[in-house]
Amino acid sequence: MKNFEKPKFNNPHLEDLDSYNRQYLESINSPDNFFLNKAIENLDWFVEPTLGFNNNFKNASWFEDGILNIAYNCIDRYAKKNPERKAIIWQGDERLQTKAITYKELLENVSILANGLKAIGVKKGDRVCIYMPMILEAAYSMLACMRLGAVHSVVFGGFSPEAIRSRIDDADCRYVITADEGIRGGKRVPLKKNVDIALEETNSVEKVIVKRYTGTETNWDSSRDICYDDLVSKQEKFCECVHLKAEDPSFILYTSGSTGKPKGVMHTTGGYLLGAHLTFKYIFGYQENKIFWCTADVGWITGHTYILYGPLSNGATTLMFEGVPSYPDASRFWQVCDDHKVNIFYTAPTAIRALIAAGEKYLESSSRNSLEILGTVGEPINPEVWQWYFEKVGKSSCEVVDTWWQTETGSVLISPIAGVTPTKPGSATLPFFGVIPSLVDADGKTLEGEAKGNLCIDQSWPSQIRTVYGDHHRMIETYFSTYKERYFTGDGARRDKDGYYWVTGRVDDVLNVSGHRIGTAEVESAIVEHKNVAEAAVVGIDHDIKGQAIYAFVILKKIEAGQANTYEEIIEQVSLSIGKIAKPEHIQFVRDLPKTRSGKIMRRILRKIANNNTDELGDITTLADPTIVDELIKGKA
Ligand code: 7RM
């Protein structure tokens, strides 16, 4: 080892691969014992659980007789022990805007909001929609809901009014917490205005709490809108935590699937928190006084679990960043790392790819000496990108952890444990405690050893999805009916000779654009909302930075009907129905789509055409009209 290299990272929670193997075996052989012990050791309970798993994968429950509160575990126990420790460092869009709040201050800020919410009627079980920018009040709002046992449904600030509306309706939210505007990369986001539009067509919402952030004027409906600052100004500085059963719901988060509208993934209190807590602690090798930064938005599961619940439940200092990696320029991430002495950094491959494309010179203005662990999440990481992250960002002296998981899994399921698991660039390596991955072929046959197949999980883990809000049947259909007795992830993966997993991406009709999950069906229904459109089929194409981009084949009602405008209008329509993240990169207007005689669109063929893989189209004789294929290839956008 060259003497200027840092020593290998010492994970304070796990000695070596042997101890991982020992604990892993224990965790899958007697999950009840293993997780009950971990739950009691790691979390504070009002009533300790005696029950582990209920042995029912599709109607899972964990620690059923335990009583606890997530906010208590994330705030109170540290506010007592270490009141002056920093809980959240907030870094605004501009470099000089920064603020740090201690655990004691967090307790106060969350308490006054919880008391305010209580005063306007929010109670246990109520659903509260949170549509906020990346400001401290977003964290306070989520934690205030937790204190009261109210179920938050955070909607990402980039989603459109229509997307907010359908989420509010689905969860029957009575309250919305928002801000006048958000700011990101120097641009303003009209949050309150979007909420106003969303609420024009929904009746369930009684009160809208509005944080005055940029100070811009917004419409005000005094029978409905409440000023956040007024609400909290008259409240007591402490709010008791409601005692919740481990299986009481903690939050709903909407995520895209291969069919229909986004599903409201519901998580619990005990199992979810344990998953968030343990994965954060082990995988990132967390120890006291380390600064952790996850660059996600709190509107995604990564933000829920690894900006808030994982770090705070460990008493860590978590950094919350309002900005974007490219503003004011591509050195921003590294500048923030230096400014706040970040030790553990967690981001998405798409961000790294964009920074590689921007050029290495953006690394020169920072030292990044504080960094010890580099994490990635959201999509497969190309080995070259992994190498760049390791060598250039981490100067070959940081641990890289490629963490595979999903909204539905609640916390990381497959990942190296920093300092313990030997890594291979591009592989998420080995399963976390309690996780039994399996690979199956299309017929459901289990594949052993080195193999490539569909990735399933064969046994429940504490933070697994409990239900799709309002539609338990849909949960069973989506995750538990493709393969018997297994949870199907929707991903494909390879297992190598060392038992390492290499997740290759979705095998269903879900796209991953810049790490954001988007269902092709959602984009298609947005496109056909345009008056000139008869039919649409959407596929993913490979994209150097985004991972995937959206390619749409569109049949117009009348080909003459002003195509030039229609192109722009369709893109606008998608922004309106879903949000900018779902805009198609290309639209190809077509006469027809490749369909089987029974009328089923053959996406396999569309995918190949859009990706220029036309030499391997496969069998097209089953098409009702095989001539369409050539026509589509010739007309490529
Ligand atoms: C955390 C999150 C889930 C989908 C999942 C995969 C993909 C996530 C990785 C990954 C390869 C990874 N939740 N995915 N992490 N693919 N390697 N390390 O992203 O619900 O929004 O998306 O993301 O396809 O199914 S999510």
UniProtKB/TrEMBL annotation:
Ranges in a coiled coil: none
Domain Acetyl-coenzyme A synthetase N-terminal positions: 20-74
EC number: 6.2.1.1
Residue ranges annotated for the AMP-dependent synthetase/ligase domain, each copy included: 76-459
Gene Ontology biological-process annotations: acetyl-CoA biosynthetic process from acetate
Keyword terms: Acetylation, ATP-binding, Ligase, Nucleotide-binding
Cellular component terms per the entry's GO annotation: cytosol
Pfam families referenced in this protein's UniProt entry, alphabetically: ACAS_N (PF16177), AMP-binding (PF00501), AMP-binding_C (PF13193)
GO molecular-function term, one example from the UniProt record: ATP binding
InterPro entries associated with the record: Ac_CoA_lig, ACAS_N, AMP-bd_C, AMP-bd_C_sf, AMP-binding, AMP-binding_CS, AMP-dep_synth/lig_dom, ANL_N_sf
Domain AMP-binding enzyme C-terminal stretches: 522-600
SUPFAM superfamilies, sorted: Acetyl-CoA synthetase-like
Family classification: Belongs to the ATP-dependent AMP-binding enzyme family.
Protein name: Acetate--CoA ligase
